[in-house]
Amino acid sequence: MSTDEHGRPEPPPRGDEASTLIGFLEWQRATLAWKTAGLDHEGLRATVGPSSMTLGGILVHLSWVEAQWTTYRLHGRRPVAPWDTVNWAADPDADWHLAADLSPAQVRDRWTAAVELSRAHVAEAMAGGGLDVTTVVPDERGPLSLRWLLVHLVEEYARHNGHADLLREAVDGRTGE
């Protein structure tokens, strides 16, 4: 697997459906890691304009997204700590707010652990039936395929990587793709 100048794995140009989907998800994950690398607590808490969104908040939010989709929806397993104790009724946006009280290392470790667990859960589902495996816990549309779930994760990362571009530039002027 080749990588670009920022260490991101290039999606396979002629891969099968699964390796292409997973390849683009890994590229989006690596983009977020690149956009948030090397920032201290203040850098991860910086905002742009009237928005309250932060780079640390994006990392913690995507930790929740990974857990929600690949642990809970895909396999029907209860989310691991800290998600198992969050009082969502008191703070429906807790995933965005938790980063403010965490150190940069805790924020990154939380995201890295969520991604690693997500990778393992996707690999388990792929081994159990491939992209046609459906979620154990349906949403309002019913069960969703692993194919749909992977595209949704790519979409989540792509959307928030656009936010990360703006936030990182505001923090220290770093720009790029």
Spatial gap, N to C terminus: 20 Å
Task: Give me the CATH fold name.
Answer: Four Helix Bundle (Hemerythrin (Met), subunit A)
Total domains: 1
Number of helices: 6
Describe, in short, the structure shown.
The chain is mainly α and 177 residues long.
Topology summary:
Elements: H1 17-36, H2 41-45, H3 55-73, H4 94-97, H5 104-127, H6 146-172
Helix pairs in contact: 1-6, 3-5, 3-6
Describe the structure.
- This protein has 177 residues and is mainly α.
- The protein has one domain: dinb family like domain (Four Helix Bundle (Hemerythrin (Met), subunit A)), CATH 1.20.120.
- The chain has 6 helices and no strands.
- The two termini are 20 Å apart.
Q: Can you give keywords for this protein?
A:
DinB superfamily protein, mainly alpha, 177 residues, Four Helix Bundle (Hemerythrin (Met), subunit A), globular, MST-like, DinB/YfiT-like, 0% strand
